[in-house]
Amino acid sequence: MTQHDRHRSHGHEHGHGHGHGHHNDGDLADLLDLDAEVHGSYLGDLTEWLGRHTPDAPSTVVDVGAGTGTGSLALARQFPASEVIAIDRSPVMLDRVLAAARGQGVAERMRVVQADLDLGWPAAVGGVDLAWAASSLHEVADPDRVLREIHDALNPGGLLVVVEMDALPRFLPDDLGTGTPGLETRCHELLAEADWNAHPDWRPHLGRAGFEVAEQRSFAVDANPAPPRTGLYARAYFARIRAFLDGQLDADDLAALDHLLDDENPGSLLRRGDLTVRGSRTAWAARRP
């Protein structure tokens, strides 16, 4: 299994637009919307930061691998005079983008383009002032080629912002009241050994594609108390890692995971009042000279 295949299979379970198959796009779209609700607290700070790197209001903004449009809508809010183009290979995702744009009153400024970036950059998208690629570059087969194509689609002086999740999210207190404290940390250690959430440092890739990196910055995700549907999201997340860690965690830790995933249990993820949301994102701002 190549590094790219590992990314597709488990490195980023929320790949936006390229790592998912058409048969489960509806389920993935639901998960992406839930992910945005639970982890979206950093978006305001991030879009304000990129706005400082874009002193002139961009005419055309592109969301590369848009998923259900969380980034597209954040960009539309940050730049109220811009046209926003959402690119994704999935019509299911793009339908969600348009529905969300109508709900937020920005549909007249939102355009969607169905394209699989593994097959090439869409010819209809050019003259771009700002491109945004959040958790999507690691999903394509040849990110260096895609970066060159984004570079060519940007106007001179145009900006690309790449965003990645720094580490797997954390939800649990150290002591769950059952099992040995530190369960989440032990899970993360095993997942890290398997390259879950692996992604490159994009700085050298950006340089090879012709960009000049203006700034790299981290943004914290820290919600306490957690958003209302965090338990639902955490249940989906832990169910996925439970399947992967079967046979790797010891019996007591697997029993503790099963305790969390048993919806009828008073200590289950859906019933706990002590969940938090912790994590971070790294963003690279790079300009076409």
Automatic annotation (TrEMBL):
<feature type="region of interest" description="Disordered">
    <location>
        <begin position="1"/>
        <end position="25"/>
    </location>
</feature>
<feature type="domain" description="Methyltransferase">
    <location>
        <begin position="61"/>
        <end position="158"/>
    </location>
</feature>
<keyword id="KW-0808">Transferase</keyword>
<dbReference type="Pfam" id="PF13649">
    <property type="entry name" value="Methyltransf_25"/>
</dbReference>
<dbReference type="GO" id="GO:0032259">
    <property type="term" value="P:methylation"/>
</dbReference>
<dbReference type="InterPro" id="IPR041698">
    <property type="entry name" value="Methyltransf_25"/>
</dbReference>
<dbReference type="InterPro" id="IPR029063">
    <property type="entry name" value="SAM-dependent_MTases_sf"/>
</dbReference>
<keyword id="KW-0489">Methyltransferase</keyword>
<protein>
    <submittedName>
        <fullName>Methyltransferase domain-containing protein</fullName>
    </submittedName>
</protein>
<feature type="compositionally biased region" description="Basic residues">
    <location>
        <begin position="1"/>
        <end position="11"/>
    </location>
</feature>
<feature type="compositionally biased region" description="Basic and acidic residues">
    <location>
        <begin position="12"/>
        <end position="25"/>
    </location>
</feature>
<dbReference type="GO" id="GO:0008168">
    <property type="term" value="F:methyltransferase activity"/>
</dbReference>
